Amino acid sequence: MRSLPLPTDTQASVFALCLGATNDPGLQARLTAIAASLAASGVTYHANATAASLHHVERRPSVGGVTKAELTGLYEEHLSKTSGAARAVYDRIRSAAPNNRCPLCGVGSVAHCDHHLPKSRYPDLSILPFNLVPACHFCNDKKRAKYPAMAGQQTFHPYFDQHLLKDPWVRATLDPGPPPVLVFDACPPTAWPAVDQDRVRRHFDVCGLATTFTTNANDELPILRDRLVLQGSRGGVPAIQQFLDDERDVHLARPNSWQYATYRALAANAWFVSGGYLTIP
Ligand SMILES: [Zn+2]
């Protein structure tokens, strides 16, 4: 997971681009009539996202005389479409993640803009920049139309939830096998508010992070084995312990990465350090 700065594009500027590109005079008039209502939706969204209460955002199937299909059509016609009038906004949001790394998992490459609150349930938020988050294909596909019915079901929002990333809560556990395998789960600090504990567990489940992290970490084990053999030849068990401690500490900058969780688990595992790594195929 990674935090991101808020998009610089505003709800009003995106709406104006969409409105200007709408050719149907009837739809243009109906959109103009709901401009204030859509702006209010954006303000309410920001307030709820800041207060970690997005489950309070109302699901509106239509707004005034504008249907759900017409609202989501604004996104499809003017933002995500390559030739859309607001496509530059879509591109700016999608490319905002450093090194194109998905902020929802910290592993995949960004491929889409994900509607944090899905447009199928919240069509009035279809073109709201704060509701659009760069995401990899896997996370985007896993999230789909899921939405928070209660506070604990709010998944991590990269623009608003930096506080959920300060303490490590991604946990790796080494199953000695053979062969040794790392398994991942969400284990937030018990001192956290219960809602935040529920939220990171929910995020972990919704985005399928157990799969993503397990795949990446276990793929790395054969390479790690060779590194540890080298360390062992230089300085025995103390050198191996030092190497794993150092790897854990350098990854502490991203305390909820699979890398930090992996090295934290391995450095603390006396069996692994004292030769268990040799059973990695
Ligand atoms: Zn992802």
TrEMBL record:
It comes from the Bacteria. This is Putative EA31 protein.
